[in-house]
Design a protein that fits this description.
mainly alpha, MetI-like fold
Length: about 280
């Protein structure tokens, strides 16, 4: 039995290592290739041998205008991506908490059917709503604005689901005690439920931030001015085999990857332990 257990452990680790290599190998090759000059990429293609030009390549790339507008640099695109990811995540988390709070603690007729309708929205691909949503945003004059990028994507059925499941685990005695102390609905939400929901809020914020950062199709539809481009949107500036394109791809992956790696324990704890 012990030998079988050790074999199973070795097999599990082998599968994990193979999966990691398959998933991260191409990105690692791209990152290492950007440490060489453009002549190495033109001659040899992707390489797994580190070079010594990483600092020179990235320092030049970060300060060089990308398009026709001299003010549009990688720093500007990163700021646009951060604003989109943070606004996207913040609104989703806030609206999801308020929606779940209303469904759980207020006597709303047909609350359960309303909740199931919210979940049914998950069955529709996000892209299927882009064209009618674009007509609305364009009619409101919100194209090439942060509001136009963020607001149409702010609702979240999955976030409402997680918060509803969490709020249903809170004992009714807590609500009764708050009422005896004279706490109204807003005070109960702000002083009691909000602090208790922080782990789940943080986990959902990170997940939705990464989702917002990686949005491509919606920024392509809603932005036509270079100053409004996000980092992922800016990939169109370069060819697939150019050194600048590879560096931009690495920079677009780095912030969300670091965020998930640094807070992976909090994400797992918030999403799973918060719903028991």
């Amino acid at each position: 039995m012990r030998g079988k257990s050790q074999f199973s452990t070795v097999l599990d680790h082998a599968v994990l290592i193979a999966g990691t290599v398959i998933m991260c190998g191409p990105l690692l090759a791209i990152a290492i290739t950007t440490t060489h000059g453009p002549e190495v990429l033109a001659r040899d293609g992707l390489t797994l041998i580190p070079g010594g030009d990483a600092w020179a390549n990235y320092s030049w790339f970060m300060s060089t205008p990308l398009g026709q507008d001299p003010d549009v640099t990688v720093i500007r695109l990163m700021w646009n991506s951060f604003a989109l990811g943070a606004g996207f995540a913040g609104l989703k988390v806030g609206l999801s908490l308020l929606a779940a709070y209303a469904l759980v603690y207020f006597r709303i007729r047909f609350a359960t059917p309303v909740f199931w309708l919210l979940l049914l929205s998950l069955m529709l691909p996000l892209e299927s709503r882009f064209l009618p949503t674009y007509d609305v945003v364009a009619g409101l004059g919100l194209t090439n604005t942060q509001a136009g990028l963020i607001l149409p994507l702010a609702a979240s059925g999955i976030g409402t689901f997680f918060f509803r499941q969490f709020l249903q685990t809170i004992p009714d005695t807590l609500l009764e005690a708050a009422r005896l102390d004279g706490a109204g609905p807003i005070r109960f939400l702000v002083d009691i439920l909000f602090p208790m929901s922080l782990p789940l809020m943080g986990a959902l914020f990170i997940v939705t931030f990464v989702n917002g950062w990686n949005q491509y199709l919606w920024p392509v539809l809603i932005t036509s001015e270079e100053a409004s481009y996000t980092l992922v949107r800016g990939l169109q500036y370069f060819g697939q085999s150019s050194l600048s394109g590879l560096m931009l791809a690495c920079l677009s992956v780095l912030p969300p990857a670091l965020l998930v790696l640094l807070f992976q324990r909090q994400v797992v704890k918030g999403l799973f332990e918060g719903n028991h």
